[in-house]
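Give me structure tokens for this 84-residue protein.
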Amino acid sequence: MSELTLDKAMEIIVNARRRRRQLKAKPVAYAIVDAGGNTLAVAREERAGFLRAQFAQNKAWGCVAMGFPSRTLRDQVKGWESWF
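Here you go.
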């Protein structure tokens, strides 16, 4: 696997923003960390909630700590919203 660079992190954010707009989802924040949990980029879209960036960064760190990508985390918690 190639090393994650700042340029690649920014490209990931650009593509994620493009996809969010296609889905017509609410504004969010993005956090990209490397394999060691070091933050490479954080971006908060206009009109996103004021804690969104912190949530995104904590989610990214949690995925590094647990050793799996956020997509796996998403798949594991599907359906939990019906519990509340």
